[in-house]
Amino acid sequence: MSRREGAEKPQRSCLACRESRDRxxxxxxxxxxxxxxVPDLDAKLPGRGAYTCTSAACLAAAVKQRQFSRAFKQxxxxxxxxxxxxxxxxxxxxxxxxxxxxxxxxGKVIAGGxxxxxxxxxxxxxxxxxxxxxxxxxxxxxxxxxxxxxGVACQWILTKDDFGALLGKAPRSALAVKSSGxxxxxxxxxxxxxxxLGEVQ
Length: 201
Prior knowledge:
Blueprint: H1 3-6, E1 11-13, E2 20-22, E3 26-31, E4 37-40, E5 50-53, H2 56-64, H3 67-72, H4 81-105, E6 109-111, H5 113-121, E7 128-131, H6 137-149, E8 153-156, H7 160-167, E9 174-177, H8 181-197
Parallel strand pairs: 7-8
Antiparallel strand pairs: 1-2, 3-4, 3-5, 6-9, 7-9
Helix pairs in contact: 2-4, 4-8, 5-6
């Protein structure tokens, strides 16, 4: 193992709960030139950063307790807690949709419940199955069971209309993403999004 591989990941503390975690498992916030607190999901923006858990509850608490002003050691402009949590949730959701759109453009997406089912029966399995949250329970459970039987990760995310809009088609109940780098990116972003919403413990 190289020295770099064995090094511990940088740790940061959440402004609200004060727990220390790996920096890449937190949400970073920075100040804009106008002194506004903005999310930095990629942790690449310049300047001093402040962090919260990937949790709407922690972010809301940090806003209500004025922790951003303390962290940046100055008065800062920050939206009300509900607006800030809605902003971060929207950005995370848009990130998921962006990866799906890129995967589709690269020819890595199979759309529609029946097509996904056929792909799961095939010799070359997809890397990930996405089921729309608003699909009928019977259809959704059938697709999820097929994915599980094929050893393919399955996530319930977005809506049928979202899937259709991303592909420029009619609503779709499910998508499959072929094995590629997009699978890992999607799984990581979906986990962050669901953690933020409190759906994953």
